[in-house]
Specification:
Shape: globular
Distance between the termini: 32 Å
Radius of gyration: 21 Å
CATH architecture of the largest domain: 3-Layer(aba) Sandwich
Number of strands: 12
Order of helices and strands: EHEHHHHHEHEEHEHEHEHEHEHEHEHHH
Length: 386
């Protein structure tokens, strides 16, 4: 029984979501495999280097940072984190090598950035015949040292841009797999049909109004209140579903602010496909997961790109514009004007048609690639020397 380790962090939630989704699809496609989720953040707790240098754990810092919108200068923060990883590279390698010497995985699949150099080195030391695969959960890399490293591993890319980046870095064709998009939870492919009219009424919404789904990740964001205020003041024929995640303060603030515009305010939920099925378009941050979920549910997207946008998410806005999947704003101060633009005759349906043309099956494609790598055996793997 092959033993597979899927590596994730809890920073932002997207890495855990992707790892959980991949575990679920792998269990159906390869039921004889033993697939284990491995929280690298927990394993590295003895090092405590984020707390030492930044005063809190890296995961907590990142999540608070997103929730409060403190993302200006995030490129510098990212490089600082990468510097801390480099300073602790030897200690990370030793700790992870000890873990893998004890657990002996047959394949390690990383769904996290920044740490792939020391993690790969640890696996090479502990289990030299076990391959290392990185499954990118961003549409493109943000080099250097973010997703891809110059090392003898496999990389799974969800776009032509990412695959080209891998080739430019020196990966051989046999090491690069291009899939059809980002990994999404299988539930996005099996959402039962819903009666939008009935369900909107059930949530206190009007069935005839265009409905925006506003989502900024599992921890919400303060800008969601500003988006509500601007749509409320616009007098547009629109209403909103606001998914606040674990941000109870934001949910309470939106409930207190209820006015003329109908809204449904929801805290943390796993029923994202259900709520998306009730919406006509998506408003949120340009995260690869949120964008890909919206597109899978045929929702045009409205996202922002400016100095506050996380550097690894900036290409996502280019991808949206290139495929004509929605509107890219410089600021959500323009959300009302952009909503009016979307609602002009025929435009929303054209964007929805473009979304339907995107066929993303990455969560089902990736287990077959994992199986291919395992079936090759150590002798069949290309071990490129960089």
């Amino acid at each position: 029984m092959p033993k597979i380790h899927l590596l994730f962090f809890d920073a932002g939630g997207g890495h855990r979501n992707a790892a959980t989704a991949l575990q679920a699809s792998t269990a159906k496609i390869c039921p004889d495999w033993e697939t284990e989720l491995v929280n690298v953040g927990k394993l590295l707790e003895p090092l405590d280097f984020f707390h030492k240098y930044l005063g809190t754990s890296g995961e907590n810092l990142y999540n608070r940072y997103l929730e409060r919108g403190f993302t200006l200068g995030s490129a510098g923060m990212l490089r600082a984190i990468q510097g801390i990883v480099r300073l602790n590279r030897g200690r990370i390698r030793r700790l992870m090598a000890e873990h893998w010497q004890a657990t002996r995985p047959d394949l390690v699949v990383s769904l996290i950035p920044n740490f792939n150099r020391p993690l790969f080195e640890a696996l090479e030391e502990a289990c030299p015949n076990s391959p290392y695969m990185t499954v990118m959960t961003d549409i493109a890399d943000y080099p250097p040292h973010f997703w891809m490293e110059k090392q003898a591993q496999y990389v799974v890319c969800g776009s032509a841009k990412a695959a080209a980046q891998a080739s430019a870095l020196g990966y051989e064709d046999s090491q690069v797999f291009q899939v059809s998009g980002m990994i999404l939870r299988p539930g996005f492919y099996s959402q039962p049909p819903v009666d939008a009219v009935v369900e909107r009424i059930h949530l206190g919404l009007k069935p005839e109004l265009a409905t925006a789904l506003v989502l900024f990740g599992g921890h919400g964001a303060a800008v969601m209140k500003d988006i509500y205020d601007r749509l409320q003041d616009s007098s547009l024929p629109v209403q909103g579903i606001f998914l606040c995640g674990k941000n109870e303060r934001l949910a309470a603030e939106l409930e207190r602010a209820r006015g003329r515009m109908p809204i449904h305010v929801q805290g943390f939920t796993k029923e994202i496909p259900y709520f998306m099925a009730l919406a006509d378009f998506f408003i949120g941050k340009p995260g690869p997961g949120s964008i890909s979920e919206a597109i899978q549910m045929n929702l045009p997207v409205m996202v922002q790109r400016n100095a506050w946008t996380l550097p690894q998410e900036r290409y996502n806005t280019e991808w949206v514009a290139e495929h004509r999947l929605g509107v890219v704003l410089r600021s959500f101060r323009d959300v009302a004007r952009s909503t009016a633009y979307l609602l002009e005759s025929g435009r929303l349906e054209q964007y929805r048609a473009n979304a339907r043309a995107i066929e993303n099956r990455a969560v089902f494609e990736t287990p077959h690639l994992m199986k291919m790598v395992l079936d090759e055996g150590p002798a069949g793997r290309r071990r490129t020397a960089y």
